[in-house]
Amino acid sequence: MTKYIFVTGGVTSSLGKGIIAASLAKLLQARGYSATIQKFDPYINVDPGTLNPYEHGECFVTDDGAETDLDLGHYERFLNTPTSQANNVTTGRVYQYVINKEREGAFLGKTVQVIPHITDEIKRRIRLLGNENKYDVVITELGGTVGDIESLPYIEAVRQLKWELGNENCIVIHLTLIPYLKAAKELKTKPTQHSVKMLSENGVHPDIIVCRTEEPLYNDLKKKIALFCNVRPEAVIEARDADTIYGVPIEMMLEKLDVISLKLLEMPLGNEPDLSKWKEFLTKLRYPKSKITVGLIGKYVELQDAYKSILESLIHAGAVNECKVEVRNIHSEYLTPENAAEKLQNLDAVLVAPGFGSRGIEGKIDAIRYARENNIPFFGICLGMQCAAVEFARNILGLKDAHSTEMNPDTANPVIHLMDEQKDIQHKGGTMRLGTYDCELAQGSRLSGIYGKHLIQERHRHRYEFNNNYLEAFEQAGMLPAGKNPSTGLVEVIELKDHPFFVGTQFHPEYKSTVETPHPLFVAFVKAAKAHQEHKKEEATFEKNLSHG
Ligand code: GLN
């Protein structure tokens, strides 16, 4: 029978419930159990697809085309297994389902209420993943903080489920903050006591308390938390601030979070966790042999979470190359042809980010031109690829007004235009080209070499596409369609022939990079950046020698 673990948060948000959930799942997986993680978000949006990245960070896309919370990206990166729509549920989705059922007449004669109808639907969705019998353990992360009004139905659903399934089949981990008061030089447990009390008032008593802390929790303090919060002493776990999120599974292993969880769930401990591959990755990450600087050109660069998967993919690829990847954020709105050289000349590579709308678009195009003309490795993702097509059309093909119809619907040269199936769509939510599609890579293309195969699957999230009316002109001028959708002929990849590394992808490779399977395209990009750096050094030495000679 599938066992259930719930992760709740107390005291403040942003304590890293997603990372704790992913770390525990990783440890269980390393002991030979199959585990998956699910996120419940208490907001009314049906999914985060229509949310501004400033609000909610990146929108993560799954194979089946669900637009989800960025924590699902962490789950995939840690577990190396794909998630799906079932792994992310919002209050909006729960209510939408219940209300649709009510309209169909499924509750005829009854008053539809939060309890039992909404809580029943929450429970159904929790158990959906377990019902398939695919997993030994389903870990469900409840978004928000205990005490929020909007979290109440979820806490109630957990209470009922614990009652229905029994404490040995269903446990609750409460992640909380132990603040350190500098002036008093003391760690404080009171906020944790209050938050556990609040949870208990709602009928749910935590089985394990994970304490985020800047300072080590000494044993007496752990005992005090255990006593006042009524959990076993070994169920108080220290989660100290880590240098990297990828160090957290090891920290949790040392704190025996997996052992206490399995004991409470009355499951055998299984093998000692085998984390050798994970540790190898961590060593490479922590002790790099070289360093490169990549410019990330985007319009949401102030908020790191907006490009989460790209940043993590660069970390994975850096570790493979035993190279630290420093990311320099460059706001595309402030980039101009005049300052492009100053902002970009010291970079080892340029990555132009995905995005929507026209703000900052010209800066992206200027950056691409600079990278193309100066042989700087360039990688454009989704909108980044579309901007590369616009730049090429304007500056090489001489089509001065070339644009995407997203930015200029009246352009005479729409090198990027709306996909046919998008033309009649009025609704914004969940209506893009979403999820995994096949892509056939051209023989002899750079990308087929990088992937080491011809048929690849990558995830999409866009409305616009390359306009095939311009394909021949592009090809003749040296911009190759290196990857196409085999059934529709849509161009999914462009690459420049005479350039050390110039690749634009309509798909989002960043959604598929994991610790155990770093994405080949990011690995190749970092490698190209290293080569560019070497080349610059050689040139500088050569020039120095010349001037000395
Ligand atoms: N705005 C572009 C489109 O809809 C690109 C989307 C993206 O970068 N994800 O096609």
Automatic annotation (TrEMBL):
Q: How is this protein named in the record? A: CTP synthase
Q: What is its EC number?
A: 6.3.4.2
The source organism is Taibaiella chishuiensis
Top-level EC class: ligase
The regulatory note on its activity is: Allosterically activated by GTP, when glutamine is the substrate; GTP has no effect on the reaction when ammonia is the substrate. The allosteric effector GTP functions by stabilizing the protein conformation that binds the tetrahedral intermediate(s) formed during glutamine hydrolysis. Inhibited by the product CTP, via allosteric rather than competitive inhibition.
Q: List GO terms (cellular component aspect).
A: cytoophidium; cytosol
Positions bound to L-glutamine: Y54, G355, L383, G384, M385, Q386, E406, R463
**Gene name of the record:** pyrG
CTP synthase N-terminal domain residues are: 3-266
Mention one GO biological process in which this protein takes part, according to its record: pyrimidine nucleobase biosynthetic process
Q: Where is this region: Amidoligase domain?
A: 1-267
Alphabetized, the UniProt keywords read: ATP-binding, Glutamine amidotransferase, Ligase, Magnesium, Metal-binding, Nucleotide-binding, Pyrimidine biosynthesis
| Residues annotated as binding UTP | S13, K188, T189, K190, P191, T192, Q193, K224
Assembly and oligomerization:
Homotetramer.
| Pathway assigned in UniProt | Pyrimidine metabolism; CTP biosynthesis via de novo pathway; CTP from UDP: step 2/2
Query: Among its keywords, does the record have Transport?
Result: no
- Per UniProt, CTP binds at S13, D148, I149, E150, K188, T189, K190, P191, T192, Q193, K224
